[in-house]
Amino acid sequence: MLNHGKLFSLRRNPQSEPIPRTVPNAAGGHSFAISDWARLDRFLVLGAEGGAYYAGEQAMTRENAVAVMRCIAEDGARAVAAIVAVSEAGRAPKQGPAIFALALAASAEAEATRRLALAALPRVCRTGTHLFQFADAVEVMRGWGRGLRRAVGDWYRAKSVEALAYQAVKYRSRQGWTHRDLLRLAHPETEERPRKALFDWICRGTLTEDLPALVHAFAAVQTDGVDGAFAAAQVRSHGLPWEALPTGLMTSRAVNEALIERMPVGALVRQLGRLTASGALAPFSPGTAHVVGVLSDRERLLKARLHPMALLIALQTYASGRGLRGRLSWEPVAQIVEALNAAFYTAFAGVEPTGRRLVLALDVSGSMASGAVAGTALTPREAAAAMALVTAATEEHWQVLGFTAEPGRSWHQGAALTALPIGPSLRLDQAVAATAGLPFGGTDCSLPMRWALERGVRADGFVVYTDSETWAGPVHPVEALRDYRAKTGIPAKLVVVGLVSNGFSIADPEDAGMLDVVGFDTAAPALIADFLRA
Ligand code: CA
To answer: Interior CA angle at 247 toward 241 and 250, to 5°?
Structure first.
């Protein structure tokens, strides 16, 4: 007689076979499909720029756009609120996905949704560059109707004249758009003389007495023969940003020293290499003291919405002593390197330790080594290591593991786990680099639970940093977790930190002991801790 139990079990199924609620993933295995709303959050934080191992940039953008549109159609108000929430709290490394999603909502079929999206324009598009990005995205989706023209016009009317002048000299053009283009399209009316003068200057270059002093300072430094000392004085007295200066002045030490004092945190972090090359940042210099002061000012970092990813990339670049493109090189100042490392942890909002015993498992497989998280220079595997370090820096009981190949076997024959000697005592860029050289194996997200069970390791939670493209295991990750719970009596939890904006998760949405969070969401470490503590 046929022994059905030998051929089919409710508890142990290879990942090549489906179990209830799973769908085929891109790797030949099966994972749970995440909801469109979860996908919206992933897209807003991770974007699709740079693509991923299993999907190119265009396919990924399309897939995400379709999911975002389903959210917008289902509940426009909720979709706009989600976009605003991620954007305003600075939860994403880049604003691009939120701006794109807002443009989709501003082009929705439902008029109420379009109105809500346009009302949110100044909250999501806070700078001139954001506004240009929005114009670029929205133009291919809808016409320049009255509602859109009024919303853009209001953007130019609501800001103070000083703030608008700053936007006008700092962000003059991006992606082929200028303020003149938008003012001509939107035609905002104004009775205020200085604002009218500013509009005239933007559209026709007319310099008048009514203009804010910043515009006159901008015009003064554009004239021929201006030297560093004069430009530095203009920067100090009027707050001219670096974008407003002619390229020829950018190597002047005096100008850079003046810029450092007033630079917004984000620009400062991105310009550290250039500022060091100019001599304005040097060991024990006043500029260095200022930079270190800014980077250790928690309030200021949080207020600037500086994403930790930006700090990690700045650290990698700055410590390497050379720019990503171009010939610029510098001698890194040790104090600044250390301050960047510390600031990375500071930039994640304060997380209280849970006291739980945590297995932090990094998927360092091949699929995690290609593509770029949120269109940055980081691969999902590097981002995974950085996220694990944030939790390790807060918690007391943790072990970092990496998904690697079985010793002596090729990657498709076996998948294994290796305890990784990385932790927050290593400098972030070095810890991240340590994951790069690991031999990788087949992807099996059930391994952390099986590893713990085999060794009698008593863990309260498994945090797996992955793209959820699991396929190589003899059992599904959720089955391994349920087996672990049954055999140890520990109601262990599983957190999946998703690092690719695909539609999969290894977490079962119907198991309350499993959570799916978006990797590199600045809110993720706190969400993980709250979930593990509950
Ligand atoms: Ca993989």
So the answer is: 65
CA of 209 to the centre of ligand 1 (A): 63
The answer as to whether 321 is a domain residue is yes
Structural domains counted in the chain: 3
Mean pLDDT over residues 352-365, rounded?
93
Do 79 and 124 belong together in one domain? yes
Least confident of 408-422, 437-451, 469-483: 408-422
Residue 100: which domain range? 30-213
Q: Cα(366) to centroid of ligand 1, in Å?
A: 5
Sequence-separated (6 or more) residues with CB below 8 Å from residue 133: 95, 96, 99, 100, 125, 174, 175
Ligand 1 center from residue 285 Cα (angstroms): 46
Are residue 60 and residue 153 in the same domain, yes or no? yes
Cα radius of gyration rounded to whole Å, the chain: 26
pLDDT in tens, 10-56: 788 999 999 999 999 999 999 999 999 999 999 999 999 888 888 89
CA of 470 to the centre of ligand 1 (A): 6
- Give the count of beta carbons closer than 10 Å to the beta carbon of residue 222: 12
pLDDT confidence of residue 413: 55
* Element at 493 (helix H, strand E): strand 493-498
Q: Let me know if residue 3 belongs to a domain.
A: no
pLDDT of 5: 67
Looking at residue 53, its pLDDT comes to 86
Are residues 331 and 467 both part of a single domain? no
Q: Clarify whether residues 95 and 191 are in a common domain.
A: yes
Q: Which of 346, 377, 394 is the last residue of a domain?
A: 346
pLDDT at 113 over 90: yes
Per-residue pLDDT tens digits for 313-344 = 899 999 999 987 778 999 999 999 999 999 99
Half-sphere exposure of 72 (CA within 13 A, CB side): 26
The answer, yes or no, to whether residue 436 has pLDDT greater than 90, is: no
Query: Bridge partners of 403?
Result: 417
Residue 198 inside a domain? The answer is yes
For residues 470 and 329, membership in a common domain is answered with: no
Say if strands 177-178 and 173-174 run parallel, antiparallel, or are unpaired.
antiparallel
Neighbours of ion ligand 1 (CB under 5 A): 365, 367, 443, 469
Label residue 305 by pLDDT band (50, 70, 90): confident
Output helix, strand, coil percentages for the chain, rounded to the nearest 5. 50, 10, 40
